[in-house]
Amino acid sequence: GEMKASVLDAKQSLNDIMKHEVKELGPHVLICTIGFFMNSTERQNYRKFFKFQVLKPLDVKTKFYNAESDEVYLEALLQNMTTTPMCLERVMLEPSPYFDVKPMNTIVAEDNVEHWVFGKVNRFNSQECRQYLFCLTPKPNIKYNSSVLKNLTEIGKLDIIWVTGIGERGHLQTSQLERMPPNYGDMKLMIERIESKASLKSKFEVTFRLINCW
Known about the structure:
Elements: E1 26-37, E2 43-54, E3 58-66, E4 72-80, E5 86-95, E6 99-103, E7 106-108, E8 114-116, E9 129-138, H1 146-149, E10 154-164, E11 169-173, E12 177-178, E13 187-194, E14 206-212
Antiparallel strand pairs: 1-2, 3-4, 4-9, 5-10, 6-9, 7-8, 10-11, 10-12, 13-14
GO cellular component, one term: TRAPPIII protein complex
Domain Trafficking protein particle complex subunit 13 middle: 58-182
Pfam family, one: TRAPPC13_M
């Protein structure tokens, strides 16, 4: 960033806030360079170095579960590694082009209204852990194509945005998440449709789909 000032009087100070997204952890150096003119017309420069350490703000761990219905469940465990609380504004899974995603982090109460599972107050305390769950469904054009599905390992990326107690914003996006390819075997049997209720000692209909996985 650059801060411009035409005149800086004696004992006067200038304040400004500049933002830069840091993408790498570990030691960093901030270099500040000041160019100025005194009584002469010759330009003078002053440079100062500020060393600082960038620590990991969030710890993210993931687990995958391959369901028989070809749905993929992603469990994301987040831990606040900072020393202050934060507000998680966005925790979303951006799926690969082969999947649709549905967040499963709300519950439906008796008033038929969805409520966030983490409570009314969005406060993520220091060292606190949260588990987020997402369900990925294959796109309709590949839903029954086992030869394609068993080779799909890329799931998507987690995108996380937070705000600290003093208003500082943070952004973290994981690298491409990958699952272990499912083992379908030679044949796969799926339930297409089944009635939600059935009477005792009476027939009910079930629709199956048998897929040759070769």
